[in-house]
Design a protein that fits this description.
Number of strands: 5
Radius of gyration: 12 Å
Helix content: 10-25%
Oligomer: single chain
Shape: globular
Largest sheet: 5 strands, mixed
Order of helices and strands: EHEEEHE
Structural class: mainly beta
Protein backbone atom coordinates (compact mmCIF):
# COMPACT_ATOMS: atom_id res chain seq x y z
CA UNK A 1 0.00 0.00 0.00
CA UNK A 2 1.15 3.57 -0.61
CA UNK A 3 0.93 7.08 0.84
CA UNK A 4 2.17 10.62 0.26
CA UNK A 5 4.04 12.74 2.83
CA UNK A 6 3.25 16.33 3.80
CA UNK A 7 5.77 19.18 3.58
CA UNK A 8 7.19 18.80 7.13
CA UNK A 9 7.84 15.09 6.54
CA UNK A 10 8.93 15.25 2.89
CA UNK A 11 12.36 16.80 3.61
CA UNK A 12 13.30 17.25 -0.07
CA UNK A 13 12.32 13.64 -0.80
CA UNK A 14 14.45 12.06 1.92
CA UNK A 15 11.39 10.17 3.21
CA UNK A 16 10.51 8.73 -0.21
CA UNK A 17 10.60 4.93 -0.11
CA UNK A 18 10.32 4.72 3.69
CA UNK A 19 7.75 2.38 5.21
CA UNK A 20 5.35 3.34 8.00
CA UNK A 21 2.73 1.48 10.01
CA UNK A 22 -0.44 3.56 10.34
CA UNK A 23 -3.52 3.23 12.53
CA UNK A 24 -6.69 5.29 12.86
CA UNK A 25 -7.11 7.06 16.20
CA UNK A 26 -10.35 8.99 15.72
CA UNK A 27 -12.72 11.11 13.72
CA UNK A 28 -12.14 14.61 12.37
CA UNK A 29 -15.71 15.08 11.13
CA UNK A 30 -19.28 13.95 12.00
CA UNK A 31 -18.86 10.34 10.79
CA UNK A 32 -19.23 8.40 14.05
CA UNK A 33 -16.55 5.84 14.94
CA UNK A 34 -14.71 5.75 11.60
CA UNK A 35 -11.82 3.58 12.87
CA UNK A 36 -11.73 -0.17 12.42
CA UNK A 37 -10.67 -1.37 15.89
CA UNK A 38 -7.16 -2.75 16.05
CA UNK A 39 -6.49 -2.42 12.33
CA UNK A 40 -3.12 -1.21 11.09
CA UNK A 41 -1.71 -0.84 7.60
CA UNK A 42 1.87 -0.61 6.35
CA UNK A 43 2.44 2.00 3.64
CA UNK A 44 5.37 3.06 1.49
CA UNK A 45 5.90 6.78 0.90
CA UNK A 46 5.90 7.32 -2.87
CA UNK A 47 4.84 10.94 -3.31
CA UNK A 48 4.76 14.47 -1.87
CA UNK A 49 1.50 15.98 -0.61
CA UNK A 50 1.89 19.75 -0.20
CA UNK A 51 -0.77 21.06 2.14
CA UNK A 52 -1.55 17.76 3.88
CA UNK A 53 -1.11 19.37 7.28
CA UNK A 54 1.95 17.64 8.70
CA UNK A 55 0.74 14.09 8.18
CA UNK A 56 0.30 11.34 5.60
CA UNK A 57 -2.18 11.11 2.73
CA UNK A 58 -3.12 7.44 2.43
CA UNK A 59 -4.13 5.72 -0.80
CA UNK A 60 -7.81 4.74 -0.97
CA UNK A 61 -6.89 1.11 -0.36
CA UNK A 62 -4.75 1.90 2.69
CA UNK A 63 -7.43 4.20 4.15
CA UNK A 64 -10.15 1.57 3.68
CA UNK A 65 -8.02 -0.95 5.57
CA UNK A 66 -8.06 1.08 8.80
CA UNK A 67 -11.21 3.22 8.57
CA UNK A 68 -14.60 3.70 6.97
CA UNK A 69 -13.93 5.37 3.59
CA UNK A 70 -17.02 7.56 4.07
CA UNK A 71 -15.11 9.45 6.79
CA UNK A 72 -12.73 10.92 4.20
CA UNK A 73 -10.34 12.37 6.81
CA UNK A 74 -9.27 10.73 10.07
CA UNK A 75 -6.77 11.21 12.86
CA UNK A 76 -3.85 8.80 12.62
CA UNK A 77 -0.75 7.61 14.43
CA UNK A 78 2.20 6.35 12.42
CA UNK A 79 5.58 4.91 13.20
Amino acid sequence: MIAAASDPLWNNGAICGKMFTVKCTGATNPVPHPCYDGKEVTVKIVDHCPGCGGTLDLSKEAFATIANPVAGVIKIEYW
